[in-house]
């Protein structure tokens, strides 16, 4: 009946490739849309005329756009994003140095958002229309509305400046991770909580749940053994989509907390007009987002037997 | 109601038991609260030139003053009155939000309607383009465009609108697809109505509900994105009192003088929350199908 899972996975992976190609094309074209000499733009304002000339030949900037793109794509695939216009280090090295910090922050925040969001959402649904439900929804409303950088500053003022419990910024000890991770997780936690609550409420209204209740099963037993598994399916997708917002939020969070990750590097690259670095980070971020969504799509199939993978 | 007939086959979306009249009232109350907050902040911003002085007037004798009777929200690192700047900042933020959403709609609605109505290869191409735009996380897309276009009010509006546009295209296309197949549209076509007439008279009015709900939520999101850009120093240029820019500008003082960051940020928070309250309320009122999922 069902086609083999392996083939479905392969098809989904192949489907993500055009999107990744499109991402590189969009970034390539965007940088060439900037008015001015692309050689000068890519080399940076500090580069000497000879450097610019060398780059022009190296990148084939006098050649047709299609040829330039093919060259660009070939080097991106081999991990060569060119040299930073400011530090003259390979962009891939710059990215590599900061990748760990960003991943640490993003993974911790996502884990936090899933744990707190799902628990809060389950509580809200289990105690639907009670003070518990309203409180969770109120906090969630705050979570989707609060500017992430402001939340970070407020947490710093309270926990670092006022109470001296945690460091105000920087990286090093686990204590340094607490405030940035909480800040970055706020929005995703709220979204996951809303989605879990909505989805669980919907599931609790379905026939099989009513049957289980009618059999005499307790509320929590029904939720844990029957409803939750079904209710969490759409939540998985939302977590994947949230990852995009999380990456955007990471740019702001890292800047607020002087967290030495990719987001902060991106901001300083934009300020310094360091286009090779901008190009590289944007492509990496978009690729991470595409891959995370691919993984959640596959997870979705793994946990929901009803999905037909055509 | 346009999509109401197209059930999702998964039973009733809301447990009908929990939907008491009391809860509807409560929901209406929260939406009303949102409207009141918005009204007050908008009125304050609009009236700022009548009630207050120049938001850029510096006073080096009175820098970094905590809140007092003279300066209700204190003064910043240049001695500028924070209340005046927050009030004037509302004008910029509301303007950017409104323009960005308007621009996103102006581009997104026609593309979405045509893509959904014409279908075929055109639809496929447009949808691949939307996929591509959605491959960039929203804030990152706006940030990338700013990197290319440069800073300033106009470029912030364009970048924020571009980040919102794919959402509109997808939304309007979906609505168009479902409406195109409705019996009354077929009837209109059988009676000889042309495509343009069908789009204007039937498709567009029926797209309105989801578009209004989405736009309200997007107004908050647009203001949030613009403030984020401003905080990074990549949005509206100082000394223009945009809320995010104010925070970015005062960065060195944020932790030593609590009021510098607290009030402009609180303003953003309140406005975005108010738009979310109103948007959620509108969705509940206009689109019963969505009730539980979003709230």
Automatic annotation (TrEMBL), chain B:
PROSITE patterns: ABC_TM1. Residues 90-279 form the ABC transmembrane type-1 domain. Residues 1-20 are annotated as: Disordered. It comes from the Bacteria. Keywords: Cell membrane, Membrane, Transmembrane, Transmembrane helix, Transport. It is a multi-pass membrane protein. It is found in: Cell membrane. GO terms for biological process: transmembrane transport. Gene3D superfamilies: MetI-like. GO terms for cellular component: plasma membrane. The chain crosses the membrane at residues 33-52, 92-118, 130-150, 219-236, 256-279. Belongs to the binding-protein-dependent transport system permease family. This is ABC transporter permease. It comes from Candidatus Segetimicrobium genomatis.
